[in-house]
Amino acid sequence: MRFLIFGAGAVGTWIGANLVMARQAVTFVGRMPFAQAACAQGIHVMLPGGETWRLRDVDVATDLAGALRRSSLAYDAVLLCMKAYALDRAIDELRSCADTLSNALFITFQNGVGSEEKLATVFGERRVLAATLTSPIAVEGPAAVRLERWGGGVGLAALWADRLWQPVAHALSRAPLLGLKVYADWRAMKWSKLLLNIMGNATSALLSAPVAEIYHNRRLFALEMRMLREALRVMAAHAPPIAAVNLPGHPARFLALALKLLPDSALRALLSRRVAQGRGNKYPSLYYDVAARSGRSEVNVLNGAVAEIGRKLGVPTPVNAALTELVQQAIQPGSVLLPQVARRALEQLARV
Asked: Ranges for the Ketopantoate reductase N-terminal domain (predicted)?
């Protein structure tokens, strides 16, 4: 099959490299540094055991229109691998090339919720597949990525119950390290990934502290648990209710059950160990948004989505709303929201 990777960052490079290894036809659309490096030295993928894939003669382009002009053959699927805040611009580009992509499926790898609805509004539900990636991928340089540890994989779910998407799923299942798992309920899959994404994310970004340190602090940990329980209440209020499901390498269903049944003292002992094993002293994604102060962040599709959908459903979400507001302040160019100020705001919120 023919795949177009739209957004050749860490996620797109990893997914595309796996498809190349499975002998699928793949075109990468990425920025100029990626294209130059991929053309000069190929794509490099480093694995935990010391093995390195070196993929030569890969097909790369720096813009969507250019990639489509070069090929007389139709693409079967476009994998959207850019950040959620870049999706609107990507949809505009896709819309301008709609005739060329008239038979392609669109697969959304964005974090958070809302991407699938945006694509479905433009191209129809039958052509959209929701996807998640739980494998930890790090960028080592232009056209070079590293799988940080074994485990994780790709989740895939169709928005519409037909068989149009099954050949694409079969091709993805043949990729050596994607570990594809297909889900019946795309909302359950995406919201389960949201639960994992928001753990320690905004708090760590605001305080410039690793997640393990956040979870070691009793008050901040309690605030984190309130945040997660708010998300679960929003999921339960949805019609129909959204149930958490286990994702490749990550027991999100067990997390949801533990949040409902266990006190914070037991959760802290349980989750602190898992976070230390999973992240160690690494920082989550929103930390880099705050550090860049570019005005762009995925917080709106994570904590912000919980708060906004909660508002529409009549579910109070004060912690998620406050975290969203603080991160939105912190990412602005020239922001003076210091970690000390954010800590006081969070500690005050924890006392409410």
From this structure: 4-151
First to last CA, the chain: 55
Phi and psi (nearest 5°) for 277?
-70, -40
Distance (Å, whole) CA 323 – CA 99: 42
3-class DSSP state of 319? helix
pLDDT tens column, 15-55: 999 999 999 999 999 999 999 999 999 999 999 999 999 99
Tokens representing 331? 């990412």
Burial 9-21 (b: 16+ CB within 10 A, else e): bbbbbbbbbbbbb
How many alpha carbons fall within 13 Å on the CB side of residue 92? 4
Which residues are CB-neighbours of 301 under 8 A, at least 6 positions away?
84, 110, 111, 112, 113, 114, 115
Residue pair 29/5 in contact by the 8 Å Cβ criterion: yes
> Could you tell me the domains of the chain?
2-182 (3.40.50.720), 191-351 (1.10.1040.10)
Give me the helices (H) in 262-338, please.
264-278, 285-292, 303-313, 318-330
Residue 125, CB-side half-sphere exposure with 13 Å CA sphere: 8
Q: Tens of pLDDT along 148-161? A: 999 999 999 999 98
Taking only the tens place, the pLDDT of each residue in 295-333 is: 999 999 999 999 999 999 999 999 999 999 999 999 999
DSSP 250: B
Long-range contacts from 49-58, C-beta under 8 angstroms, 24+ separation: 53/17, 53/21, 55/17, 55/20, 55/21, 58/20, 58/26, 58/28
